[in-house]
Amino acid sequence: xxxxxxxxxxxxxxxxxxxxxxxxxxxxxxxxxxxxxxxxxxxxxxxxxxxxxxxxxxxxxxxxxxxxxxxxxxxxxxxxxxxxxxxxxxxxxxxxxxxxxxxxxxxxxxxxxxxxxxxxxxxxxxxxxxxxxxxxxxxxxxxxxxxxxxxxxxxxxxxxxxxxxxxxxxxxxxxxxxxxxxxxxxxxxxxxxxxxxxxxxxxxxxxxxxxxxxxxxxxxxxxxxxxxxxxxxxxxxxxxxxxxxxxxxxxxxxxxxxxxxxxxxxxxxxxxxxxxxxxxxxxxxxxxxxxxxxxxxxxxxxxxxxxxxxxxxxxxxxxxxxxxxxxxxxxxxxxxxxxxxxxxxxxxxxxxxxxxxxxxxxxxxxxxxxxxxxxxxxxxxxxxxxxxxxxxxxxxxxxxxxxxxxxxxxxxxxxxxxxxxxxxxxxxxxxxxxxxxxxxxxxxxxxxxxxxxxxxxxxxxxxxxxxxxxxxxxxxxxxxxxxxxxxxxxxxxxxxxxxxxxxxxxxxxxxxxxxxxxxxxxxxxxxxxxxxxxxxxxxxxxxxxxxxxxxxxxxxxxxxxxxxxxxxxxxxxxxxxxxxxxxxxxxxx
Amino acid sequence: xxxxxxxxxxxxxxxxxxxxxxxxxxxxxxxxxxxxxxxxxxxxxxxxxxxxxxxxxxxxxxxxxxxxxxxxxxxxxxxxxxxxxxxxxxxxxxxxxxxxxxxxxxxxxxxxxxxxxxxxxxxxxxxxxxxxxxxxxxxxxxxxxxxxxxxxxxxxxxxxxxxxxxxxxxxxxxxxxxxxxxxxxxxxxxxxxxxxxxxxxxxxxxxxxxxxxxxxxxxxxxxxxxxxxxxxxxxxxxxxxxxxxxxxxxxxxxxxxxxxxxxxxxxxxxxxxxxxxxxxxxxxxxxxxxxxxx
Lengths: 589, 294
Description:
The structure holds 2 protein chains of 2 kinds. Chain A is 56% helix and 11% strand. Chain A has 26 helices and 12 strands. In chain A, helix 2 (41-65) crosses helix 12 (252-265), helix 3 (74-91) packs antiparallel against helix 4 and helix 13 (272-287) packs antiparallel against helix 14. Chain B has a two-stranded antiparallel ribbon. Chain B is globular and about 60 Å long. The relative contact order of chain B is 0.21. The interface between A and B is large, with 49 and 47 residues.
């Protein structure tokens, strides 16, 4: 995935000293208010329309950047809202406010329709589906002419909204400003909210989202609904502004306009939609109105030119240039001592309820990939409050076993029990909510979030409200690294950061996939110390998949040795050390 | 439905499906070498049709028609090469890995706008050098039959090309493993440019041969793109046999819809098919389910 957002963290340095939000609000408000007060009909109208389009582009930006959803059909949602509101008003004689509610609901339903395919397919597939919708929509408006007015369209006049208050400033202009400002504010705040963080995590890595107890499908659905709500609002305000709604208003290029505006402005940047709409809409349509036959040509050439010259979009490229001028932080690191100081000690609760039933139990796990066997009847039990080492040569099925436990892999046959629940048919995100947390071989670090938020998202998974209190303990100390951007962290610390996230989740069972891979000897020592602390002081139960055998033998209570998808040996470290089967597999244990 | 109507729908549907199949194969050729979906393929084919309109006299001879076809195929090959170069430039440096989407979409818009400047919003009529034939008492433009022949011929040529020629093998290699191909000394950039050219030639031939039956106008490229993409998805993305079968299915189905409900529903039905396939079997008829990586 590409760069997501960067207006969110203080880590990037204070790029503009003024918050971009205030710049955006000022620009949108001034562009409508100034011509309004000075009584310029033409510019009042144009900039009110631009404000509505800006709002749509902001929601497109949220959909693309925070949610990672690729829609080329936002114009259809706008159109559905507008056509519904216009038809209800003029053809069916309802008052405008009631028709507007109808248009809003219709737009939401259209957004929900987009979310359907988005549950199955992503990326350009989704782009094509939404692009087909954009192609088909005006055709259907014509085809169903009895309810839409067909080719001739529907005229609408709402006197209360278009009668000027002062100069040429109408109540409608004020509503358009409110919508655009509301959209910008939402986008500014959104990445800092819980839902926003979940959305960012889901868009970067669906696996990571699931391991944090989030159902990425639900998040995508919500993202489409949010975008549809804002877009439909713009659509219903468009009706009284333009005074006429017909199929030619919503051709394919209308949908593509919003997508291109975001890209030209710079995906993920707060101000991108304003600049983007000015360049791809305002310039060709209004400033070059005498060359209206060249409109599409200009539109295509601008998009091509920006992509070739400013591949990060205009706002993105300016911001990059600006930050490049400033001396940048070359490296960030956090101190593990700070972490140890803040670690909670709650061994009491965990260890007190000690009973003999294992927290995780796998029996007869079998999995084939085509003809290759990954698991061939393997099983294991993880006792509460222990570290369980899972070792074996490459390809012996360790990671497959871990994925079978966490739910990322569907077994061909076998049983998996978690906290005494049968979880074989349970999706990964539900297992996570039972109290299972995991890390990945490649750490999933989210560069759109600060180090603090990278840890905090752990607590948003398991159970929801609970957290370990670790983050709060950290936050009371004045630690500058918490608000830095994790992109500058060295590799070893990225791993530790992911492990801290897992800790913050308060999940009793933790699965670690080769946590020591790529760590230095020093960092391995820290890691071992951290694991022992987790078990002894906090009462966590840990499954440790690892190649560093000396570390496993040093910290584990039980060890399972795998070979070719089967269990070669199982038992306490000292028993296994002398097992003939194990000696065959490893030399020097 | 009478037998005559059925024949009419089948023959014209398959002919139209051949256009979709050829577009799908062009998409596949480029996508397999570069993971780029060229959004401009529809517009490129329509552009070739405009080329045929410009070159051909109102009463072309067979020889002149063939020469014009070769010229257009060559021209579109060059055009494809240039477009490929333009598309690949930002991929070198940018973090924006989807830049191809914007650049190919922009080229599609520019071609459409260019056609509009040249001919307004009217459709171009291109004559056929060969008179229509009668099948089961239905008059069928020969272009439909020639398109079916072209689709099968292109399929066979691509099959031969991908398995027998150096550059074709290199394309297959790049498609399977980019890094390994680089390590084996393949000039990946050159292979990708060649794939854009090759797709341009295919689209040039399609636009020229199909010109009498293609809807050649400023805004029809995107419809052909979506039908071609649907054909590719139905058959299985990247699979040319699938493109052939998928094209036939989309063509016959949309022709049936046009006949039964009216032409205005043709694109809606194609979209319905696309969504249906993506929801039920996203890998298509001949595609393999991609292994999930964690």
